[in-house]
Amino acid sequence: MNWGALDRYAKSLIKEAAQHIKHSFFTEIEISAKSSANDLVTNIDHEIEQFFIKRIRRDFPEHRIMGEEGFGDDIQSLDGFIWFLDPIDGTMNFVHQKRNFAISLGIYIDGIGMLGYVYDVMADDLYSAMKDEGAFLNDIRLPSLEDTTIEQAIIGVNASWVAPNRYVETAPMIDLVTKCRGTRSYGSAALELTHVAAGRVDAYMSMRLSPWDVAGGIIIANEVGAISSTLTGVRPGLLQQETFVVANKSIHTQLLEEFIVLKK
Ligand code: 2AM
Ligand code: CA
Ligand code: CA
Ligand code: CA
């Protein structure tokens, strides 16, 4: 495989898809609910996923695609080439804010992340990474992360972590949000991963994410030395919904051991 050529191909596909998304603001967008009233999807999510899939199938017929909206392949194993695609990550932001959403794409071979992309469409910020070649923001290299401490960290969490929930004990989470320097919640898992990779946020966690939410961002975060895992500390499996945390490596273990206490 010519990885440089595949990288250029993926970037041009993402930029073309982003133009379609921007043009959609001049049309009537159809919004519907998926699993719950707050879980939104639009005709644009569907159209963008179909745009990618049509191109990838034409140009790489032997590759498989896992996309959020279900137009891709039924993926039960990580063998061979797999493209993990979230056509719009942060659909609620797309609908309500017309910003703060991203296209997320990760290209894996036999479960190993090779090329990762998160494109903040309205900011025109393309985060990308190639395994062992570093991570970039618009072709400017992102430096490796420097060590930090909980007291100096900004933690990416949403309010559900300190409200009663079925995944984690709230008392240690309240302790965490009290001890850390600040908290943030951006509403797009892919963008939150890039904030960690760029050192703007020091950790991000979620109780339930799917492979397409994180596959691209994990590769980017990995290249600057951040650690991604489930809340039990194992590598994300990328075949089903899981808990997720990405953090500066100097606080990852402490977060899991002291503050994220899983309910039995
Ligand atoms: P989405 O916008 O592509 O659905 C919102 O905090 C983040 O969680 C987004 O990255 C969102 O992705 C993701 N997410 C995963 N499952 C979700 C669900 N059932 N409802 C809403 N957001 C979900
Ligand atoms: Ca969704
Ligand atoms: Ca998503
Ligand atoms: Ca999505």
TrEMBL record:
<protein>
    <recommendedName>
        <fullName>inositol-phosphate phosphatase</fullName>
        <ecNumber>3.1.3.25</ecNumber>
    </recommendedName>
</protein>
<dbReference type="InterPro" id="IPR000760">
    <property type="entry name" value="Inositol_monophosphatase-like"/>
</dbReference>
<keyword id="KW-0479">Metal-binding</keyword>
<dbReference type="InterPro" id="IPR020550">
    <property type="entry name" value="Inositol_monophosphatase_CS"/>
</dbReference>
<keyword id="KW-0378">Hydrolase</keyword>
<dbReference type="InterPro" id="IPR020583">
    <property type="entry name" value="Inositol_monoP_metal-BS"/>
</dbReference>
<keyword id="KW-0460">Magnesium</keyword>
<dbReference type="Pfam" id="PF00459">
    <property type="entry name" value="Inositol_P"/>
</dbReference>
